[in-house]
Amino acid sequence: MSDDSGLSDHARGVVVTTICCLAGIAAGLVSAAYVGTDPAAAASTTAVFVLGAFVIVQYPVFKAVGVGDLGIKDNLYVAFLTFTLWFISYTVLLTSAVDLGV
């Protein structure tokens, strides 16, 4: 079964999941580079704004790769998965005190 985009349901799910995971990891790296990894950076809300930007930027990417319109369940999935990967990657960078040198 496929929608107007030409992708099967499975391929569509794989594409959305891959983009969300990569965006979450990238958001974690950008948060660490822009906000920092010292203890004061852990309390900064700027990192959450970086996460929000990465969630929003995904939607034009989805349209570019032919995913089509997303429903409310898909939008919640995108936000949750991006948040989860951002949280994991940024937490690892914070706890290891990595200096990205930016």
From TrEMBL:
Pfam families: EMC6_arch
The protein's name in its UniProt record: Uncharacterized protein
Superkingdom of the source species: Archaea
Transmembrane region(s): 12-35, 41-62, 74-98
Alphabetic keyword roster: Membrane, Transmembrane, Transmembrane helix
InterPro entries: EMC6-arch
